[in-house]
Specification:
CATH topology of the largest domain: Rossmann fold
CATH architecture of the largest domain: 3-Layer(aba) Sandwich
Strand order of the largest sheet: 2-1-3-7-8-10
Helix content: 25-40%
Number of helices: 10
Number of domains: 3
Distance between the termini: 47 Å
CATH class of the largest domain: Alpha Beta
Largest sheet: 6 strands, mixed
Number of strands: 19
Length: 433
């Protein structure tokens, strides 16, 4: 669904004739018989729709009919209004000072996308955020506005981070962001993968626009949505192995910095899976409750001495468990999978493993629970146990490391497998365990 506003009645909103060119060319790319992702009848284009109610009805209808992919693109002016500084998408009759009654509230669009039964959901916004509107926020302006954009399990891509947005450059037929996006989709990238995924498009657009001193795109990606492909790469002669430049040697003799504290993957070129930290708070409550009960029974109940000793030991165990769960809840595990490698951020430290040193990686059962398992020559440098630290553990029998348990992450097994295969390529293969 492609939406755009090029004409405005409010004199304070500049006219954007390039938006119509955006809509036409994007529709042509997405519905191309040889390289498109949808048929013409499934690509709806709405230009200069001024009736908010009618526009909302069209969005809801399209959202309810989508099955595999529901993509919404908007180009025009982005307005920030009301005391809550909510984002509004300008329509032809929108008022710059009071968009609440004349513009499309982004939260309404977001709700329609959330309600869609489509398996994959994408929102692309090519619009500006007014610096005057968000300048008084106590929070960072980018975070304050972009925080409204998240769509659960999906991908949101915006044309800018802040309020310095160049929508149209002299001599160009498209707006700056959409023009470069269209060029990528049309021409591809010779050094890119076979499929142009959202993460690859974001990374390339960010690099290009930053080099041209234009506004830098932002994104919000939840789970493995960054692997959604918008087009085949027309310039790709063969699959490109995303293995990266050699990592520097450490003074310890290792081929890479395994304890690297900074992010190993390039910005925007990875997906993140976070732990279910709330479950640790629940476990903290339960173990502390059991510990308190054990203490009461050990010191107040009329029980044999051996029973009191047993309850005392139980109370000590519960105390230790409570302490461990509190630490895990305060610093939950985070797994990142990207173009350069796999990185685990745990309480006991950071583990960075670039693809160039990985012999194999897959999801295997370890002690009855699915884990991301990595085979590499230096596997024995990792500890044999790290219960409360949540870090990687060496498995001597298999010559591999159990990097992270999937059961503690807010993601399903197939989502992590999809990310591993999307970024790891030939390194994702099964070994006998």
């Amino acid at each position: 669904m492609l939406i755009g506003t090029s004409h405005y009645t409010d004199g304070r909103l500049t006219q954007l004739p390039a938006v119509r060119q955006n809509l036409g060319d994007l529709a042509a790319v997405f519905t191309d018989p040889a390289h498109g992702i949808v048929s013409r009848e499934h690509c709806l284009t709405l230009a200069d729709e001024s009736d908010v109610r009618r526009l909302g009805g069209r969005i809801r209808a399209a959202a309810s009919e989508a099955e595999d992919l529901f993509l919404v693109y908007y180009a025009g002016h982005g307005l920030v209004g009301s005391r809550r500084h909510e984002l509004y998408l300008a329509l032809p009759d929108s008022e710059w000072e009071a968009p609440e009654f004349t513009a499309m509230e982004y939260d309404k669009l977001r709700g329609a996308v959330l309600d869609s039964p489509a398996r994959n959901k994408v929102v692309i916004l090519d619009c500006c955020f007014s610096g005057r509107a968000v300048g008084d926020l106590m929070a960072d302006p980018d975070t304050a506005v972009l925080g409204q954009l998240d769509v659960n399990g999906s991908y949101v891509l915006t044309s800018a981070q802040g309020n310095q947005v160049a929508l149209k450059l002299p001599g160009e037929e498209h707006t700056a962001f959409s023009g470069r996006l269209i060029r990528l989709l049309r021409e591809g990238a010779s050094d890119g993968p076979e499929l142009l995924t959202l993460d690859f498009l974001y990374q390339r657009l960010r690099h290009t626009m930053q080099a041209e001193k234009l506004s830098v795109p932002s994104r919000r990606a939840l789970q493995s949505a960054g692997l959604i492909a918008l087009a085949p790469n027309r310039a790709a002669g063969r699959p490109i192995d995303p293995i990266r430049s050699p990592e520097p040697f450490r003074t310890t003799g290792l081929r890479w910095d395994v304890d690297r504290s900074s992010r190993g993957n390039d910005e925007g070129a990875y997906v993140t899976f976070e732990a279910r930290h709330r479950s640790y708070w629940v476990l903290t409550f339960l173990t502390s409750l059991l510990g308190l009960l054990a203490v009461l029974l050990a010191f107040t109940a009329e029980l044999p001495t051996f029973a009191k000793i047993a309850f005392g030991v139980g109370a000590a165990v519960c105390l230790a468990l409570t302490f461990g769960y509190v630490q895990m809840a305060r610093a939950p595990v985070r797994l990142e999978i990207g173009t350069r490698g796999v990185q685990l951020f745990a309480r006991s430290g950071t583990t960075w493993i670039p693809w160039s040193v990985i012999g194999a990686i897959d999801i295997e059962q370890v002690n009855g629970s699915p884990h991301v398992v990595v085979w590499l020559e230096e596997a024995d440098i990792f500890p044999d146990s790290d219960i409360f630290g949540g870090g990687a553990q060496f498995m001597p029998k298999h010559g591999a490391i159990a990097l992270c348990s999937i059961s503690i992450l807010r993601a399903r097994r197939h989502e992590i497998a999809k990310a591993l295969r999307g970024y790891g390529g030939q390194h994702v293969k099964r070994r006998n365990m």
